[in-house]
Structure of TonB-dependent receptor-like beta-barrel domain-containing protein:
Amino acid sequence: MKPITGNNQEIGIKRNWAGGNWNTSVSVYRILKENELTADPIHSDPNQSYSIVLGQKVARGVEFDVRGRILPGFDVTANYAYTNAEITKLNEGVEGFEVGDVVPGYSTNTANAWLDYTLQRGPLRNAGISAGFTYLWDRKTYDGELEGIPFDDYFKLDAGIHYGIKNFTVRLNAFNLLNNYLYSGSYYEWNNAFYWQTETPRNLRLSIGYKF
C-alpha cells in the first residue's frame, strides 16, 4: 500500500489594532493529500466495510479571524472560512468516484462567533456571561453518482455563565441551547441510504478550573 503524502500551502496577514485590543488575520490555503484511505462506496455492505486508496484530494479556501475587546470585560471572537474540497485524481481501478466530485463531510461555508462579558467592579465582580454560535451552510456529501447531495444547514447556539475567585473559575455552559437536531453523515450506495451521526440535544456542563 502506498503511504499517505500531502502538501500544505498557506499565506496570510495578521495585524493588531487599537493598541493591541483588536487582532485580525486573513489567510488562503491549499491542502493536498495523496493515497488517503476512503470508504469503498461499491463493495462495502452492512456487515463489513472496505477501504480503498482513492488517489488525490485538494481543499482550497480562505479564512478570516477577528478577536477584540468592545468594552472593558466585553470580548468577541469571530471566524469565517470558505472551503472548496474536491477529488482531483483517481488511482487505477477505483470505482464509484469521479474526478471533480466533492469530498464528503466538508462544509463550503463555516462561521462562528463567541461573546463574553465579565463584570469589572461591584459585589459580582468577576462574574460573567457568554454566548456564541456555529453556523455551517452549503454542506454536501457524496452519493456515488451525483456531484453531491446537500445537507440541511447546521446552526448551534451555546451560552454560559462563569465566576472567578482567586485562582478558581466555575463555569456552567449550556450547549445546543435551541435543542436543534444536528447531524453529519454520508450516503452509502450499497444500501441506498444515509448514515447519520447525530449530536447531543440540549445539555449542560459544569466545570471547575484552577490556575497555578
About this structure: The chain has one domain: 5-210. The chain has a mean pLDDT of 85.
